[in-house]
Write a structure and sequence with these properties.
112 residues; mainly beta
């Protein structure tokens, strides 16, 4: 198995064990680029909820040129809102690739 990762997914959990956020990195121009952040919102953080029990989902999609969009899905609403954005400083979205086995802590603890 190679230590080189082409794509990396990081999952953050609430104290109770619910999925709070998922960060997806994709290899772009020889570096990992944080291209998507999905946040799951729950009624509280004190008890466990499965993903379908979330009250809302926010998905941020980023592109290396600083453009992207935010898609928000509130469970009580019947529609998804989409907001486009540009001019975002994505310099912190770039991470050197994983080349050594076990070198993922620096990506797993990152919070944009």
């Amino acid at each position: 198995m190679s230590a080189q990762a082409e794509d990396v997914r990081v999952t953050h959990y609430t104290p109770a064990g619910s999925i709070e956020a998922v960060l997806d990195y994709e290899m772009t121009e020889g570096r990992l680029f944080l291209m998507q952040v999905t946040e799951y919102l729950y009624p509280d953080q004190d008890r466990y909820y499965s993903q379908p029990q979330c009250t809302a989902v926010r998905s941020f999609f980023f592109r290396p040129d600083g453009t992207g969009d935010l898609r928000t899905n509130i469970s009580a609403a019947e529609a998804v809102t989409v907001e486009e954005f540009s001019g975002v400083d994505v310099s912190r979205h770039w991470v050197d690739p994983i080349t050594t086995w076990g070198d993922w802590d620096r990506i797993g603890t990152y919070n944009p």
